[in-house]
């Protein structure tokens, strides 16, 4: 799969982890909420669908706060 498209799993993992790195300085609870809110606001539905599918497949490569944020957002 092309890792340069915005919906490739590798690209989405990279992007989600970068968002996580940005929010980590805010403490765990605020970081998880911030990551979830950012993905909700700025990722298109196809990107969210793909990252939810990746989460369902185990979420390999996602940092812990990012994993939690995506699980929270999926609810």
Give a quick summary of the entry.
The chain is mainly α. The chain has helices at residues 9-23, 28-42, 45-56, 64-74.
Secondary-structure blueprint of this entry?
Layout lengths: L8 H15 L4 H15 L2 H12 L7 H11 L1
Protein described:
The protein has 75 residues and is mostly helical. It has one domain (10-74). It is 71% helix and 0% strand. It contains four helices and no strands. Helix 1 (9-23) packs across helix 2 and helix 2 packs across helix 4 (64-74). 28% of the residues are buried.
Keywords:
75 residues; 4 helices; mainly alpha; single chain
Question: How many beta strands in the DSSP annotation?
Answer: 0
Unreliable spans: none
Distance between the termini: 28 Å
Order of helices and strands: HHHH
CA radius of gyration is 11 Å
Oligomer: single chain
């Amino acid at each position: 799969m092309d890792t340069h498209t915005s919906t490739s799993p590798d690209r989405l993992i990279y992007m989600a982890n970068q968002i996580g790195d940005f929010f980590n300085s805010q403490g765990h609870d605020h970081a998880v909420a911030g990551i979830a809110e950012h993905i909700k606001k700025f990722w298109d539905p196809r990107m969210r669908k793909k990252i939810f599918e990746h989460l369902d497949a185990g979420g390999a490569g996602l940092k812990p706060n990012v994993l939690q944020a995506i699980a929270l957002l999926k609810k």
